[in-house]
Design a protein that fits this description.
By secondary structure, the chain is α+β, with helices and mostly antiparallel strands. It contains 16 helices and 10 strands. The two termini are 21 Å apart. Bound molecules: adenosine monophosphate (AMP) and magnesium ion.
C-alpha cells in the first residue's frame, strides 16, 4: 500500500499522456485525483503491488533490487490499449532496502518532462501522466520536498526481472514470467519453434533500435543497468540523463559514473551487453547456447542499420551510398574537435543552400577549423547534388527529424528552481514546447539557445 503524504498538491500533468488512458488532464488537478495519484487514497478496485527484480549495476551483479519506491495501482484501458499506472515515490515497499521510498520534486520534474519529450521525439518510452507534491521533507544531499510521478507503460518488466529468477534458480517462476510477457506483449512469438529464443531476438532488436534513436538525438540515459532496461524496448527510469550539447562522444552525463561506462559512445555496446545479460537469464528456457548467440547477433546489424537510416535523414540524404559512412565520421570528428552543439548544428544544417557556400557562416562559425568544415561542406554539397537535392524540400525533411528543442539540463533546472518556489508555470511551458520539438516556434527561440555559462556547473547524479 502507498504511504500517504501530508497535504498533497498538484504540480503538473501531461494532456497527451492523459489522453492515452482516456483521462482529461484538466481533471487531474482535482483533489480526488491528487489523492489517488499521490497514493493517499487507493481506487476501489486497485490491488497495489510492487515488483521484485534484480540486476547488474555498472557491470556488477547487484542481487535483489525491486520497486523500492514504485507502486503499481493497476491498469487503465484507454485508446492506447491497456496501460499500467505506477506511482513513483509513494512510500516504502518490501524492496526499499536502505531507501526511503520517496522521490524528490527535482528528479520527478526531470522524469516527467523527459518522458514526454522523448515521446514527442518519437522514441519508445514509458510515459508520465502527472506530478503531485508535498512539503514533507526528504533527505538527499540536502533536505528537499517530496513528489510522486505517475508513470504509465504497458509493462514495467525489466531485464532484471528475468535475471532475478534465473539467479535465484527458480525455473518455474522464470518460465511463468516469460510466458506472461510473450502471451501479453509478443503474442506473435507463440508460433515460433522456441518462443523464448524469439523473445530474446525481438527484445534485442527493439533495444538496438531504441539506442540508435537515442544516439541520433544525442540522448544519454546515464544509468543503463539491466534493471533499467525495459522488456518492451522502452526508455525507462529517467535519472541522471542528459542531451548532448557540446559534442563529445565520451561525454558522461551521470556525475556518479566516474569510469564513463555509460558515456554517449559506450551506450550502443552497453545495450548489447545488457541483452547478453537477458540472454543468460533466459538460458534455462532457450536451452541451446548457439541459439541464444544467434538471437543476440541481431543487435549489431539492427543498430547499424537503424542509425545509418537516421543519420541519412539527419543530413537530408534521400539515398544511401557506401561512402556516406565516411561523410558522417568526418562530420562527427569535426564536431568533437570544436565541441559543436549537437542539436543546434543539425537544425542549422537544414538551412544550407546548395548553391551558396557564402551563406554558410552560421554553420562554419560553430567550428574551430573553418577550412576543415568548408572541405566537409563541399563534399556534402557534392553528395547532395548526386541526388538532385532541392533546398526547400530537404529543409522540410530535415526539420522533421532534427529537433529544435530538447530538454537541456539548464532548461529543466530553471523549471525545477521555480517549482521549488511553488511556481509550476515553467514546467507546463517547457512541456508545451517540448511536445512540438520539430516546430520552429519562433516565440520560444530562447529555449533553443546554447546553455548559459552557469549551466556548465550543473551536475546530475544518481541521487533522486
Ligand atoms: P535506479 O538506479 O534509480 O533505477 O534505482 C536502483 C534501485 O534503487 C531500484 O530498485 C530503486 O527502486 C531503488 N531506489 C532508488 N531510490 C530509492 C528510494 N528513495 N527508496 C527506495 N528505493 C529506492
Ligand atoms: Mg531503476
Amino acid at each position: 500500500m502507498p504511504t500517504p503524504l501530508p497535504a498533497p498538491y498538484f504540480v503538473a500533468a501531461s494532456a497527451r499522456a492523459a489522453a492515452l488512458v482516456g483521462l482529461d488532464a484538466a481533471h487531474l488537478a482535482n483533489s480526488d485525483f491528487v489523492d489517488f495519484l499521490t497514493g493517499n487514497r487507493v481506487p476501489a478496485r486497485s490491488q497495489p503491488l510492487s515488483a521484485v527484480y534484480s540486476g547488474h549495476q555498472f557491470g556488477v551483479w547487484a542481487g535483489q533490487l525491486g520497486d523500492g519506491r514504485a507502486i503499481l495501482l493497476g491498469e487503465l484501458n484507454g485508446p492506447a490499449g491497456p496501460m499500467e499506472l505506477q506511482l513513483k515515490g509513494a512510500g516504502l515497499t518490501p524492496y526499499s532496502r536502505m531507501g526511503d521510498g520517496r522521490a524528490v520534486l527535482r528528479s520527478s520534474i526531470r522524469e516527467f518532462l523527459c518522458s514526454e519529450a522523448m515521446a514527442a521525439l518519437r522514441i519508445p518510452t514509458t510515459r508520465a501522466l502527472c506530478i503531485t507534491g508535498s512539503d514533507k521533507g526528504v533527505m538527499r544531499e540536502t533536505v528537499e520536498t517530496s513528489a510522486v510521478v505517475t508513470r504509465m507503460a504497458p509493462s514495467f518488466v525489466r531485464f532484471g526481472s528475468f535475471e532475478h529468477w534465473y539467479y535465484r534458480d527458480k525455473p518455474e517462476e522464470l518460465k511463468a514470467l516469460a510466458d506472461y510477457v510473450i502471451y501479453t506483449f509478443y503474442p506473435e512469438l507463440t508460433a515460433e519453434p522456441n518462443p523464448y529464443t524469439a523473445l530474446l531476438a525481438e527484445v534485442t532488436r527493439r533495444t538496438a533500435r531504441m539506442i540508435a534513436q537515442w544516439q541520433a538525438v544525442g540522448f544519454m540515459h546515464g544509468v543503463m543497468n539491466t534493471d533499467n532496461m525495459s522488456i518492451l524496448g522502452l526508455t525507462l527510469d529517467y535519472g541522471p540523463f542528459g542531451f548532448m550539447e557540446a559534442f563529445d562522444p565520451n561525454h558522461i552525463c551521470n556525475h556518479t559514473d566516474q569510469q564513463g561506462r555509460y558515456s554517449y559512445a559506450n551506450q550502443p555496446q552497453i545495450g548489447h551487453w545488457n541483452c547478453y545479460a537477458l540472454g543468460q537469464a533466459l538460458m534455462p528456457l532457450i536451452g541451446d547456447a548457439d541459439d541464444a548467440q544467434e538471437a543476440l547477433a541481431v543487435y549489431q546489424p539492427e543498430f547499424a542499420r537503424t542509425l545509418d537510416h537516421l543519420l541519412h535523414a539527419k543530413l537530408g540524404l534521400a539515398t544511401e551510398h557506401e561512402q556516406d559512412r565516411a561523410l558522417f565520421d568526418e562530420l562527427f570528428k569535426l564536431m568533437a574537435a570544436a565541441h559543436v552543439d549537437f542539436t543546434r548544428f543539425f537544425r542549422t544544417l537544414g538551412k544550407l543552400k546548395l548553391d551558396d557556400p557564402a551563406a554558410d557562416a552560421p554553420l562554419r562559425d560553430m567550428f574551430i577549423e573553418r577550412e576543415a568544415f568548408d572541405a566537409w561542406a563541399a563534399r556534402y554539397r557534392e553528395r547532395l547534388r548526386q541526388e538532385a537535392s532541392a533546398d526547400s524540400e530537404r529543409k522540410t525533411a530535415m526539420d522533421a527529424v532534427n529537433p529544435k528543442f530538447v530538454l537541456r539540463n539548464y532548461l529543466a533546472q530553471v523549471a525545477i528552481e521555480k517549482a521549488q518556489n511553488k511556481d509550476y508555470s515553467e514546467i507546463a511551458k517547457l512541456l508545451a514546447i517540448l511536445e512540438h520539438p520539430f516546430d520552429e516556434q519562433p516565440e520560444h527561440e530562447a529555449y533553443a539557445a546554447l546553455p548559459p555559462d552557469w549551466a556548465s556547473h550543473l551536475e546530475v547524479s544518481c541521487s533522486s
